[in-house]
C-alpha cells in the first residue's frame, strides 16, 4: 500500500471512530439529562428549560468528543509508530511540538 492509500484508510477509521464516539457521548449526556436534571424541574416538558439545555449539551458533547478523539488518534500514531507510514501533513496535525518524545 502506498502512503496515500494508508492515509485514506486511516482517515476512514478516524471518521468512523468519531461518529461512534460522538453518538456514545451525546447519548450519555442526554440520558443523564433525562434521568437526573429533568425530574428535578416541575413541568420540564412544558417549560423552556429543555430548549435551553439541549444546545448547551450538544456543544459540550462536541468539545468533549474532539478532545478525546485527538488524544486517541495521537496515541494510535505513537503506539503503532505510524509517523513514516502516513502522510506527513496528517501526522504533523496530531503530533505538534512533540519532537522531544521521539
Quick description:
The protein has 102 residues and is mostly helical. It has helices at 3-37, 49-79, 88-94. Helix content is 72%, strand content 0%.
SSE layout:
Blueprint: H1 3-37, H2 49-79, H3 88-94
Characteristics:
single chain; 102 residues; mainly alpha; 3 helices
Protein architecture, described:
- The protein is elongated and about 60 Å long.
- The relative contact order is 0.13.
- The chain is an all-alpha fold.
- It has helices at residues 3-37, 49-79, 88-94.
- The mean pLDDT is 88.
Which shape, going by the Cα principal axes? elongated
Mean pLDDT: 88
Radius of gyration (CA) equals 19 Å
Distance between the termini: 25 Å
Order of helices and strands: HHH
Helix content: over 70%
Give unreliable regions as ranges.
Answer: none
Taken as a percent bin, the fraction of beta residues is under 5%
The number of distinct helices, counting runs of at least 4 residues, comes to 3
Provide the structure class.
Answer: mainly alpha
Q: Report the count of strand segments.
A: 0
Largest sheet: none
Amino acid at each position: 500500500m502506498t502512503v496515500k492509500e494508508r492515509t485514506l484508510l486511516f482517515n476512514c477509521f478516524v471518521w468512523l471512530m468519531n461518529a461512534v464516539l460522538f453518538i456514545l457521548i451525546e447519548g450519555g449526556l442526554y440520558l443523564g439529562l433525562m434521568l437526573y436534571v429533568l425530574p428535578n424541574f416541575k413541568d420540564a416538558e412544558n417549560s423552556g428549560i429543555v430548549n435551553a439545555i439541549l444546545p448547551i449539551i450538544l456543544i459540550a458533547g462536541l468539545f468533549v468528543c474532539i478532545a478525546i478523539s485527538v488524544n486517541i488518534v495521537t496515541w494510535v500514531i505513537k503506539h503503532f509508530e505510524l509517523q513514516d507510514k502516513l502522510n506527513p501533513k496528517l501526522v504533523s496535525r496530531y503530533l505538534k511540538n512533540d519532537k522531544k518524545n521521539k
